[in-house]
């Protein structure tokens, strides 16, 4: 009898677990603002945040969408983690956007403007910024709202820098030898390599923002980039090209 009870308990737990499908959530264009792996804004920037998400289900009932929120926050503490407790609920003035999206999941976009008068990250060691962003939803379609949490938010540490600081960081990140074994093929809109180069690559725009990244596979398709000046960085060197 005890064995049967244990089997039934395991079966019930398995059914309950199967009835919970977590949501998914990501800041999908975050890499557009990364310099040397750090999300970087400057005063006066208008930031377009693209969120990709799906809704899950709870106890077999579909979760329902409420809204997505993004907000720039500051904390008078050095090196505070994005997921650490104690962050102030008071955002930097004018940097909160609460917006709807497709109720069944998908992609939604909102914009905030970084204030011209905002303190720079370099102005004091006791200052940390994060971009809080999360989805609010109702588990199982109930009345109680869940604000973010695992799989429903992507809070990220960000840095506020001047254009001069950004230029300096960009120069350091591409301080490598010139890549002489590659060229831009304007007819086919690809970077062509003259020998068998492998490994990771990044392409920066003239402001030092990451425009593209990935792994080299004989050529690099740059058709998605707008016209402008770019710098390709690889382990073997760098290539400056105009599209």
From TrEMBL:
Keywords: Signal
Source superkingdom: Bacteria
Ranges of biased composition (kind: Polar residues): 86-98
Ranges in a coiled coil: none
Organism from which the protein derives: Wenyingzhuangia fucanilytica
Signal peptide start and end residues: 1-18
Segments for region (Disordered): 82-104
Record's protein name: Secretion system C-terminal sorting domain-containing protein
């Amino acid at each position: 009898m005890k064995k049967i009870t244990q089997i039934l308990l395991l079966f019930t737990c398995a059914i309950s677990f199967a009835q919970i499908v977590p949501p998914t959530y990501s800041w999908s264009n975050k890499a557009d603002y990364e310099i040397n792996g750090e999300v970087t804004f400057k005063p006066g920037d208008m930031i377009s945040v693209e969120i990709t998400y799906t809704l899950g289900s709870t106890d077999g009932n579909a979760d329902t969408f409420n809204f997505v929120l993004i907000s720039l926050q500051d904390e008078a503490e050095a090196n505070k983690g994005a997921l650490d407790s104690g962050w102030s609920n008071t955002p930097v003035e004018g940097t909160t956007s609460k917006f709807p999206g497709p109720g069944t999941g998908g992609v939604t976009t909102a914009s905030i403007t970084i204030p011209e008068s905002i303190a720079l990250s370099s102005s004091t060691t006791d200052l940390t910024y994060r971009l809080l962003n999360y989805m609010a939803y109702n588990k199982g379609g109930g009345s109680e709202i869940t604000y973010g949490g695992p799989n429903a938010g992507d809070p990220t540490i960000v840095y506020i820098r001047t254009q001069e600081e950004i230029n300096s960081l960009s120069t350091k990140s591409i301080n490598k030898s010139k890549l002489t074994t590659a060229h831009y093929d304007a007819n086919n809109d690809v970077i062509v390599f003259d020998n068998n180069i492998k490994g990771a690559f990044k392409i920066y725009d003239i402001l030092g923002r990451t425009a593209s990244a990935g792994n080299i596979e004989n050529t690099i398709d740059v058709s998605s980039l707008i016209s402008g000046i770019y710098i390709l960085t690889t382990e073997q060197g760098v290539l400056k090209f105009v599209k």
